[in-house]
């Protein structure tokens, strides 16, 4: 995924499904470097721990 797509997802009112290494996640924010984002695991409608990941490793599904 690229920074423009992350920005689109963050500004969208639709629920867009995203995975990080086959794990469903919620994108909290795009970092200033625009190569990483803060995400949370998203399982059974519950948000998990926040972590920083490379956005190139995010996938829509």
From TrEMBL:
Superkingdom of this protein's organism: Bacteria
Keywords linked to the UniProt accession: Sporulation
Induction remarks: Expressed only in the forespore compartment of sporulating cells.
UniProt cross-references to NCBIfam families, sorted A to Z: SASP_H
Name this polypeptide is given: Small, acid-soluble spore protein H
Subcellular location: Spore core
InterPro entries registered for this protein in UniProt: SASP_SspH
A GO cellular component entry from the record: endospore-forming forespore
Family that this chain belongs to: Belongs to the SspH family.
Gene that specifies this protein: sspH
Any one GO BP annotation for this protein: sporulation resulting in formation of a cellular spore
Predominant place of localization: other
